[in-house]
Specification:
alpha/beta; GMP Synthetase, Chain A, domain 3; 2 domains; three-stranded antiparallel β-sheet; 36% strand; elongated
């Protein structure tokens, strides 16, 4: 079980309730996180819920992938992901996550061979199928990796 506390308080409660521009997320025993609601330029100092979901998705994929590499003897030395989330509306007009695109740049301390390329690509797909978060969302997911091998055959 995991637990967070989400907290918001209206600073001007005498004037009626306004949509909050930000709120706090508290993680038990760790640093709090300010979350924004607005995407306006003057209010871009904190992540919004969509960005937090995307970060969780990308992190989940990364951790699963690195674990698979370790179990399969593949010496990964760097994982850098540039991730995107695309929002849409359902047929009922409700907002939803339509698509997630991950663009990991993966570096390996091994030779660049066809066999190794096949293994690292297979593990990318396996990591996605094992990701608890990927299995919890209905969004389409695309992964467009860039592979770097630090040794030459």
């Amino acid at each position: 079980m995991y637990r967070t506390i989400v907290h918001w308080k209206d600073p001007d409660s005498r004037d009626g309730v306004d949509l909050p521009s930000h709120h706090e997320v508290r993680f038990m025993g760790r640093a709090d996180c300010s979350v924004q609601v607005s995407d306006t330029e003057q209010d871009r100092q904190h992540a919004n819920p969509q960005e937090l979901l995307l970060a969780a998705f990308s992190s989940s994929q990364m951790l699963t992938y690195i674990s698979l590499c370790a179990r399969n003897g593949i010496p990964i030395v760097e994982y850098h992901d540039s991730a995107f989330i695309y929002m849409d509306e359902s047929v009922l007009g409700q907002p939803r996550v339509e698509r997630i695109v991950l663009q990991p740049r993966l570096s390996f301390d091994t030779d660049d061979t066809l066999e190794m390329r096949g293994r690292v690509i297979r593990l990318i797909n396996e990591a996605l199928s094992l990701s608890w978060l990927a299995n919890s969302l209905r969004a389409r997911v695309a992964i467009d990796p860039t592979l770097e091998f630090l040794r030459r055959p």
